[in-house]
């Protein structure tokens, strides 16, 4: 059940308990929710579908999971413009790589391309990414790329 609750001023740490606002009485701001989990046969990815601009929901049906290659996907969070542009650039580079190599790109390769671009542009980009998919060498794999361009392989992650 979604309903807007009254916003009450927060009391200081030194206030009497009766004067403190309940944590359920103020509007709760949520960002993007993304996740990926590895299992024996591959990877499961999920994301919410709302795009917001501050408190205004700009789009209730946005797709935050973007295909990069046949079996590699990215969950995007942060600036929609930055993450969409980044996904488009990486899709192009991965297609070129696949043509040169003669086989589909591995998940680690795609994650490294994202990592490199995020790190080189860390002062201009506001994105957090989860790159996940399946390839014949690594099986189902998940990489998380937070703000700043670090990259970590994990069995599961949320963003």
What does this 3D model show about the protein?
With 159 residues, this protein is of the alpha+beta class. It is built from 2 helices and 10 strands, in the order ββββββααββββ. The strands form 3 sheets. Strands 5-6-7-8-9 form a 5-stranded antiparallel beta sheet, with helices on one face. A hairpin with a 2-residue loop joins strand 1 and strand 2. Helix 1 (80-101) packs across helix 2. It is globular, with a radius of gyration of 19 Å.
Briefly characterize the structure:
This protein has 159 residues and is of the alpha+beta class. Helices cover 23% and strands 33% of the residues. Strand 3 and strand 4 (56-59) form a beta hairpin.
C-alpha termini separation:
24 Å
**Main β-sheet, in a few words?**
5 strands, antiparallel
**Count the helices. How many?**
2
Indicate the low-confidence ranges by residue numbers: 1-15
Element order, helices and strands? EEEEEEHHEEEE
SS-derived structural category:
alpha+beta
Radius of gyration: 19 Å
How many E-type strands?
10
**DSSP helix fraction:** 10-25%
Defining key terms:
single chain, 159 residues, alpha+beta, five-stranded antiparallel beta sheet, three-stranded antiparallel beta sheet, 2 helices, 33% strand, disordered N terminus
SSE diagram, text form:
Blueprint: E1 34-39, E2 42-47, E3 51-53, E4 56-59, E5 65-69, E6 72-78, H1 80-101, H2 107-120, E7 127-135, E8 139-145, E9 152-154, E10 156-158
Antiparallel strand pairs: 1-2, 1-10, 3-4, 5-6, 6-7, 7-8, 8-9
Helix pairs in contact: 1-2
């Amino acid at each position: 059940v979604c309903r807007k609750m009254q916003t009450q001023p927060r009391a200081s740490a030194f206030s009497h308990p009766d004067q403190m606002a309940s944590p359920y009485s103020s509007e709760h701001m949520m960002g993007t929710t993304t996740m990926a989990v590895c299992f024996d046969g591959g990877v499961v990815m999920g994301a919410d579908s709302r795009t917001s601009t501050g408190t205004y929901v700009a789009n209730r049906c946005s797709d935050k999971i973007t295909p990069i290659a046949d079996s590699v996907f990215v969950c995007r969070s942060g600036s929609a413009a930055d993450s969409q542009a980044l996904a488009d650039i990486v899709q192009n580079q991965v297609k070129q790589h696949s043509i040169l190599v003669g086989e589909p790109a591995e998940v680690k390769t795609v994650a490294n391309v994202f990592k490199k671009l995020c790190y080189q542009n860390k002062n201009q980009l506001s994105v957090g990414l989860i790159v996940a998919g399946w390839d014949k060498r690594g099986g189902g794999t998940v990489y998380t790329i937070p703000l700043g361009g670090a990259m970590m392989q994990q069995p599961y992650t949320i963003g």
